[in-house]
Every structure is written in structure tokens, then in C-alpha cells.
Amino acid sequence: MNVEKAILIIAASALLVATVLMTVNVLVNQLDNRKLSLEQRVQTILDNQPIIDGHNDLPWNIRNLAYNDLRRINLASDLSKHEIWGKVNTSYTDFPRLRKGRVGALFWGAYTDCSSQLKDSVEQTLEQIDLIKRLVKKYPNYLEFAFSAADIENAIENKKIASLIGIEGGHSIQFSFGILRMFYSMGARYMTLTHDCNTPWVDASPVDPSSVDKNPTLLPQNDGISEFGLRIVKEMNRLGMMIDISHVSQRAMEKALKHSVAPVIFSHSSARAICDHHRNVPDSVLRLVKKTNSIVMVTFSSAVVRCDGTRGNVSDVVKHIQHIRSITGPEHIGLGGAYDGGDVFPKGLEDCSKYPNLFKALLKTGDWTVEDLEKLAGKNILRVFQAVEQKRNELKDQEMEQGFINGEELDKKKVNLTCITANFER
Ligand SMILES: *[C@@H]1O[C@H](CO)[C@@H](O)[C@H](O)[C@H]1NC(C)=O
Ligand SMILES: *[C@@H]1O[C@H](CO)[C@@H](O)[C@H](O)[C@H]1NC(C)=O
Ligand SMILES: *[C@@H]1O[C@H](CO)[C@@H](O)[C@H](O)[C@H]1NC(C)=O
Ligand SMILES: [Zn+2]
């Protein structure tokens, strides 16, 4: 036997051994994976990428139930066992349950009711921002403030819940570029363009007919978003503030998606095709979400998950997610549970400790890879937030919006200015 032949035989044997070892390794890994329970697989996924939730209304509950006095409430305890909070049907959030739910970041809603519009909406929004700041300061073992996508990742690295501010409702700024900019400087990183009422510059979702309201009494006034509203959108792009189009009319969704030069978000909305509620996103809009690199953060409140008035369960939320995915793919979905912002949540998603149940259910469908589920949990919203920051950097030389809204336009829309002494352009 010559040397070449010997080398060839040795090489061939080595290759054979390597192949056998690799095959055995793959088989062992597969067995290991099968041995890991669904629970363990979900834990690993949410350890790698904790949940980044688009909307939580705890601050509104603290306003209503504790008069914004943080001495009246211990959020480091399980509030479901508390004698008052445990009985309130909108209290589903506290820090132990957020940790159990594997939540790594939240946009806390700085919300004021539509009844404050053109009255003290700005004052109340300031109080809610102050409350969120005091909350983060009081619980440094649980919370860490975040103003950027990088801050979210840092807080998660530090095992803290990244805390961001989302302003819910354009009435919070009345019609002022100055107030918008001040809220941004205080830390607000998204603004929902409306709540349930029109502002003098954007129409809200109750103008759209749906199975819950076939003949809406709220009428469109702004063709979705008025010219002035588009200037607010432009200023938000310049600031790097995410434009949230949950709660707005379909026409307003379409216009925001068309005119925003950065991706936009639905911080808490589900699929209109599954539950025909005006708060949910129609298929045609879902296609625009994909086209613009935007995101729908699916919400859990039974009122928009089930249109038949029943409570529903995890499978119902899975239906919404699967439907959205069928149009956008897994890159444009996130989660915005909106806990504490509703009184009924589906079985299996009763409070903010239950997110892992949703991931178990999605794994069981067989449609979701580990990577897909990490995107859903948080990577998609991080990507969108980064794109908004990137656009802000590109726009750094764009001139800011200045001046006031036009008074004649307000008169034409019959905006009630009884409580307003502000100046307008005429
Ligand atoms: C929740 O409580 C409020 C206030 O007590 C009540 O009006 C509402 O009907 C309750 N919701 C449910 C689903 O019981
Ligand atoms: C949810 O409810 C439906 C209908 O009642 C049922 O078929 C389904 O198994 C339930 N899903 C879960 C996860 O309990
Ligand atoms: C305008 O608002 C004031 C103060 O809330 C109220 O008293 C008045 O009735 C309103 N006017 C109209 C026309 O709605
Ligand atoms: Zn809302």
C-alpha cells in the first residue's frame, strides 16, 4: 500500500466518523428538544428576548384609585391579593406579576380622558408624566427609565423593566407644536393621535361603522388627518417620536402611513377581519403596515378580541396574531396587552403574568420558529423604534414646525373654545 492510498483511507475514515458523530449529535439534540417541555422552551425564548409591551394603563388606575399618591399603593406586592385593588376589575398589573410574565419593557400610558379635551387635558397629561417619573424613581429595583431603543436593551441587560412614556390621545397637546416638543423633552416617545374623540386635526376610530356601531354618531371632520395634523406628523418624525395610530379612523391610519417618513406603530390594536371593531386594523391597512416597515402590537382586551361580547381565551388572541401574520409576515407584529385599560381579558391572559401562555399556544401551532417568537416578543418593535431614531438623525437639518393652528379652521369645525384663551393664526 502506497502512502497516497493510506492517506486517502485515513481521510475517508475520518469523514465517516465525523458524519456519524454529527448525525448522532443532531438526533440527541432533537431528543433534548423534545424532552424540553413547552414551558421550558418558552422560558428560553423570553429569557433571550423579554416582552416589550406597547401599552399599559396602570398610571390611569393610580390616578383614579390612589389620587396619584404612591404612598397609597405597594406595586412590589401582588395587588390581586389587596383588599381594594384586588376587587377592582381593571387592576391587572404589578411588578411581581410583570416579572412572572417575563416583561422587559413597557410603554406606560400617559392618558387623559376625552372629556378633558379643550379644558385641562394638558395639565392632566403633565400629572401623568410626573406620576410615571415618580414611579420609576420609587422602584429602582424593578424599573429603569428608557428614552431610546438602546436604553431598552440596557435596562433589560440590567434585569430591569425598561419604562417609557406613551401619550394616549392628541387632545393631550390640544393643537400645539410647543406642547408636543415639551412632552418629547420630558421623555414621551410615542403619541397616539387620538383616543375615542376627534381632535381638531385627526379623526378617531368611532367615526367608522363596524359591527359594534353600524351608524356612528361621531362624524369625520378632518378627512382622517387635516393639513395641520400632517404638520404634527411631520414634527413627530423630526423629533423621533413614534406615531401611534391605534384609536384613529381608517382614513387617518392610511394618511399617517402615507405621509410619515418613518415607520409608525399601532401600540394596541388587533385584526378587523377577526373582530369587526373600529379599534382594529383592516386588511388593506395591514398591507400598508408591511410596506412601510411598521408594526401592529396586538391587544388582548376582550372587547376588541371577541366581537360577540364573550370573554374568549388565548386561542382567540392567537387567531388575531395568525391573521395579521398571514398578511404582514412575522416581522410586523408585536404585543400591546393594554392591561389596566379594560375590564375583561381572555381566559389564560387574565393579567400581566400570563404572556407565556400566548407563546406556548403559538409554539403549538407549529408555524412559529424561535426567531419568529423573539421578533414578536420585542425585536420587531426595537427595529421600528431604531428606524424612527435613524430617520430623526437624517432629518436633523429639517426646520421645525412653528406658529399656531388657524382660528377660522377651528370655527368652521365648530370647535368649542369657551375654555381656551390661546392665540390662533387668522
Ligand atoms: C367593572 O367595574 C365597573 C365599575 O364598578 C362596572 O361599571 C363594570 O360593569 C364592571 N365590568 C364588569 C365586566 O363587570
Ligand atoms: C378556547 O375556547 C374554544 C371554544 O370555547 C376552545 O375550543 C379552545 O380549546 C379554547 N382554547 C384554550 C387554549 O383553552
Ligand atoms: C362649550 O363648552 C362650555 C364649557 O364646557 C359649555 O358650557 C358649553 O355648553 C359648550 N357649548 C356648546 C355649543 O357645546
Ligand atoms: Zn387605548
Automatic annotation (TrEMBL):
Q: Name one GO biological process term.
A: proteolysis
Q: What is this enzyme's EC? A: 3.4.13.19
Among Pfam families, the record links this protein to: Peptidase_M19
Q: Which CDD domains match?
A: rDP_like
For the keyword Transmembrane helix, the answer is yes
- Class in the EC hierarchy, top level: hydrolase
Spans through the membrane: 6-28
Tell me its cofactors.
Zn(2+)
Q: Does the keyword Protease apply?
A: yes
Q: Which domain of life is it from?
A: Eukaryota
Q: How does it sit in the membrane?
A: Lipid-anchor; GPI-anchor
Which catalytic reaction applies to this protein? an L-aminoacyl-L-amino acid + H2O = 2 an L-alpha-amino acid
What is its quaternary makeup?
A: Homodimer; disulfide-linked.
> What name has this protein been given in UniProt?
Dipeptidase
